[in-house]
Amino acid sequence: MGEFRIIENDRFIYYGEVRKDDHSKILGKGIKVIKANGELFEGWHKNENNVTGKGRWIGGRAKKIYVGDLVDNKSEGLGELRMASGDRYKGSFVNDRYEGFGTYYRVDGRYREGIYVQSKIQGEGKICFPDGSF
Q: Are 98 and 91 in contact (CB under 8 A)?
């Protein structure tokens, strides 16, 4: 690792670190853009198909931005997801879903915090309105 290269094929363009023993193999910090849908992955690439660790994902057609922990190209751990609508979620993720404690912020100023299971709020939560009332 340590040497930066540009790798391009019919599926993606990558700029970043490569294996020392084989400069055609991705390994290390870099940026990869998927040609088919415009998705961008930035972070630690274990290989050409896998980003793990602190990173960033920008969804091409989905128009979403995720910054946080990634495991095998999925949001896993703590992070923040911003949607095209302006809404955002900040908290825990498991397998690309809101899971555990988090806060969902709406573009209109309302937010809801609590425990999420499979991206749905569970039980008691707190809703706050733009004027500060609950």
A: yes
Rounded CA-CA distance 1/12 in Å is: 20
In sequence order, the 6+-apart residues with CB closer than 8 A to the CB of 79 are: 66, 67, 68, 69, 90, 91, 93
CB 102, CB 117: distance < 8 Å:
no
Q: Are 27 and 46 in contact (CB under 8 A)?
A: yes
Residue 36 bridge partners (DSSP):
none
Mean pLDDT by 10 residues, the chain (134 residues): 83 93 90 93 91 92 91 94 96 97 96 95 89 82
73, 66 contact by CB (below 8 A): no
Domains recognised in the chain with CATH numbers: 4-102 (2.20.110)
Tokens of 95: 């397998």
Dihedral class, residue 107 (left if φ above 0, else alpha if ψ from -120 to 50, else beta): alpha
pTM: 0.88
In this structure, the number of other CB atoms found within 10 A of the CB of residue 52 comes to 17
Gap between the Cα atoms of 31 and 83, Å rounded: 21
